[in-house]
Amino acid sequence: MTPAARLSAAIELIDTIEKDRVPAAKALKEWGTAHRFAGSGDRAAIAGLVWDVLRHYASSAYLMDAGTARARLIGMLRLERDMDTPTMAALFDGNRYAPAPLTDAEQAALASRSLKDAPAAIAGDYPEWLDPYLAKIFGEDRAAEAAAMASRAPLDLRVNTLKGSRDKVLGRLSHLKAQPTPWSPNGLRIELGADARNPGIQSEEDFIKGAIEVQDEGSQLAALFTAAKPGEQVIDLCAGAGGKTLALAALMQGKGRLIATDRDKRQLAPIHERLSRAGVHNAEIRTPKGEADPLADIRSTADLVVIDAPCTGTGTWRRNPDAKWRMRPGALEIRLKDQVEVLDRAVPLVKPGGRIAYITCSVLAEENDEQVRAFVARHPEFSVVPSEQTASVLWDKAEAFAEAALRSPEGWLMTPRRTGTDGFFISVLKRAA
Question: How many CB atoms lie within 10 A of CB 144?
Fold first, then answer.
């Protein structure tokens, strides 16, 4: 496909996503199935265009003073791809498979409009109803913070220390131009261009043998901050597919008891194969059966309960740009109730002197600081572990991390703008001995 034909396909897809209200990933998959002639490079380039439009969905329409799929694509090409008008006009030439020529109104918008005086929700590309929520945590920086959350995310990997060292794996992945992550001692990062194809990590020998896993650096740090130790009894209460379970197992060096469970047993399906591939032998999967409590036999014995809490996912907008436009106010209320329930469910599991690590992939204060304060008010036998103590696991990088991340009395908040990670919050709460 020509570059111009790719633009036409992207416009068609954006229009479909808008009118049919379908998730972008589903629309892209269906388009690829219906257009078998498109090669992998074409599909990757078209997907890149679509995702970039969704990242800049509000700002691109504002720039062009129009909300059509075509206008949003044109606006994105200027804002994200820094494409000048003559280059754009050469692609929008109306020839076979190419988009129609730029109109006078479109050329005028490109020449005269900018985001200089745009409202924060427009400049930051987020739904307007979220503005007071983001203002509460970021203040005047909310547009800049949200704009960073609208950027393109890299591919982060975690080296499984049960299988090898970062230095050795780094050498074996040199063909992918992998580099060490800034904070995590076990992380690798692969930067991806706008039209980059999937690097096929699942086909790499290191992945097949369990030496690496795909995991954002923020998620790696959240697991690291739990300070799980060899010999402890650790419960991963919202294990899902097992990303943090695997990281916890590595921290425990295969020693101790690691129990993974989740209220939604469907989410647990991939964890068995992942644990086996990673060489984890001290993990026990507790799959829910009916109404029975899979942890009924555990009372006040856990050294650590990790809660990767259900949340709005506002911290993952870089990877799921269409999710923010489908998010509704009611979703936050539901998640807040879910978080209270899972936090209270963890309490009877924790032994005296034990701890709860509360983690979200959200940047909203309601799900983070406020949720922790409410928990401590309900359970005064718990207190927040000082954040500087939590971050001490980063050793020589702890001071620089403290300057980069947002610290509160309740915990740490990482963001793309500040730490180069997805948005993650972590608070560690200790039970009185």
Answer: 14
Print burial letters for 168-200: b (CB count within 10 Å at least 16), e (below 16). ebeeebeeeebeebebbbbbbbbebeeeeeebe
- pLDDT beyond 90 at 197: no
Calculate the average pLDDT of the chain: 95
pLDDT band at 194 (very low <50, low <70, confident <90, very high): confident
Residues 6+ apart with CB under 8 A from 203: none
Q: Is the model's pLDDT at 259 over the cut of 80? A: yes
Structure tokens, 411: 């915990």
Exposure string over 241-252, b if 16+ CB within 10 A, otherwise e: ebbbbbbbbbbb
What number is the average pLDDT over the span 200-215? 96
Tokens encoding 176: 């992918």
Report the SS3 class of residue 346: helix
- Residue/partner pairs of 381-384 with CB below 8 Å, 24 or more apart: 381/431, 381/432, 382/347, 382/356, 382/429, 382/430, 382/431, 382/432, 383/429, 383/430, 383/432, 384/409, 384/410, 384/411, 384/427, 384/428, 384/429, 384/430
> pLDDT digits over 234-247, tens only?
999 999 999 999 99
The CA-atom distances, in angstroms, between 88 and each of 48, 107, 395 are 17, 10, 49
What's the CA gap between 415 and 27, in Å, rounded? 29
Give me the sign of the Cα torsion angle 343, 346, 347, 352. Answer: negative
Indicate whether 184 pLDDT > 90. yes
* pLDDT reported for residue 291: 87
User: 420: alpha, beta or left, given left = phi > 0 and alpha = psi -120 to 50?
Assistant: left
Q: Which amino acid is at 181?
A: T
Distance separating alpha carbons of residues 157 and 164, to the nearest angstrom: 13
What is the rounded distance in angstroms from the CA atom of residue 283 to the CA atom of residue 254?
Answer: 8
SS3 428: strand
| CA atoms within a 13 Å half-sphere pointing along the CA-CB vector of 287 | 9
Would you tell me the crossing angle of helices 69-79 and 3-20 to the nearest 10 degrees?
120
pLDDT at 189 over 80: yes
Instruction: Read off the pLDDT band of 100 (50, 70, 90).
Output: very high
